[in-house]
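pipeline stage [seq->struct] | target=Acireductone dioxygenase | organism=Phoenix dactylifera | residues=188
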Amino acid sequence: MALEAWLIDESDDEDQRLPHHRNPKEFVSLGKLEDLGILYWHLDPKNYENDEELKKIRESRGYNYMDLLELCPGKVENYEEKLKNFYREHIHADEEIRYCLEGSGYFDVRDKEDHWIRIWIKEGDMIVLPAGIYHRFTLDTSNYVKLMRLFVGEPVWTAFNRPQEEHPARQGYIKNLFENSGVALEAH
């Protein structure tokens, strides 16, 4: 199953959980996501506890902390408020690593021209968003996702809402983005 990503029609104020395709649809390649520093793997979510490939990724990238999050009505206190917070455009000082074990949702990221790209993660999709990339998250109309969250060291949950142009993680991301333009990143 291939990861799906597309440019969003930003003029629409409809429900954030809808796909928001442009007309005509404009899909984005995995190569373009890699150019933005986003890494992707497709793994076996039914075997995550014994998955050798996941173990290798965790060891090679230093992901020593893991927890699970189920996001849906009834499972999360203040569900609607949390979903709104996840959907605010922000950055993190560290990578954001998410592995979708069940359900689905959308990560939106900004491209080099500051347009939104919507990445639809489904069961088995694992993505790494680089530190400093502007992004947001929402569920799709299924209203359910179970995610594995991975971290290097102790988890840091701090989101820095846009604008954050002076934040060291943002400055580092921008520097890498334009210095490495055209240089292939680690692809999976």
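stage status: PASS
auto-comment: Strands lie at 4-7, 39-42, 65-71, 90-91, 96-110, 116-122, 125-129, 135-139, 145-151, 160-161. The chain has one domain: 31-153+160-179.
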